[in-house]
Amino acid sequence: MKNQSTVLGIMGLLILLALWQIGSLILAQTMPLANMLAPAAALGSLKTLLLGGQLWEHIFASLQRVGVGLAFALLIGVPVGFALGLSRKTEQTASPAFQFLRMISPLSWMPVVVMLFGIGDAPIYFLLAFAAVWAIILNTAAGVKNINPQWLELGRSLSATQSEMLLKIMLPAVLGDILNGLRLAIGIVWVVLVPCEMLGVNEGLGYFILDTRDRLAYAELMAAIVLIGMIGWALDSMARSAAKFWQRN
């Protein structure tokens, strides 16, 4: 079954590659520059950029921003999720406001955060954390609500303190849900990252895309797009593997 899934996945990627090639050929009929968007040009440029080292500083800068944004989202989202899951009144009070805020695109806050924090990494950290925190809050709250009541009764019968109940019973019980929320948050953050890195920074994959556009280096632009997809796929795979590993154990 696993081999079949792998084969089907490879077939899907090959179909996507074929559609990419066909699309670039069609565009090239009216737009000669479209030849630079073709798979061969993009993948060749990606290889050159990686081997030449021009992309690594941008990759590391983007991954650092993602890591900091997710860390802030976890620091805020997990305690808030516990508060919502443990108290029905807290959930009823906070849910309308949270649903309202959750539906606002993080990118719409760009002018506000630039005014507050200036340009640089600080507004990017805010926007990424804002984008990621909702998935973590909702999954954590759902996990808390679904904790087996017998586990809690066992803890009380053993005279466990509140901190012991939280750290030794509740947190391990909801860690799988937190990891699932983190996986969703990674997907959201990685999508939001590129436009966020167009806020006046001088490194990162979003900045690199702007730079290639200004230089009319379209093969490098497509190479960066492919790389963004590959890194996002790798991050999602790692988060999914971590969640599955925890559920098995």
UniProtKB/TrEMBL annotation:
Q: Which Pfam families did the record assign?
A: BPD_transp_1
Query: According to Swiss-Prot or TrEMBL, what is its membrane topology?
Result: Multi-pass membrane protein
Task: Give yes or no: UniProt keyword Transmembrane.
Answer: yes
Annotated InterPro entries: MetI-like, MetI-like_sf
Report the residue ranges that make up the ABC transmembrane type-1 domain in this protein. 59-239
Asked whether the keyword Transmembrane helix is assigned, the reply is: yes
| Localization annotation | Cell membrane
Which biological process terms from the Gene Ontology are attached to this UniProt entry? Answer: alkanesulfonate transmembrane transport; cellular response to sulfur starvation
**SUPFAM superfamilies in the cross-refs:** MetI-like (SSF161098)
Q: Which residues cross the membrane?
A: 68-87, 99-118, 124-144, 165-193, 216-235
Keywords of this protein's UniProt record, alphabetized?
Answer: Cell membrane, Membrane, Transmembrane, Transmembrane helix, Transport
Q: Which GO terms describe its cellular component?
A: plasma membrane
| PROSITE patterns xref list | ABC_TM1
**Could you tell me which PANTHER family the record lists for this protein?**
ALKANE SULFONATE ABC TRANSPORTER-RELATED, MEMBRANE SUBUNIT, TAURINE TRANSPORT SYSTEM PERMEASE PROTEIN TAUC
- Which family does the entry's similarity section mention? Belongs to the binding-protein-dependent transport system permease family.
Record protein name field: Bicarbonate transport system permease protein CmpB
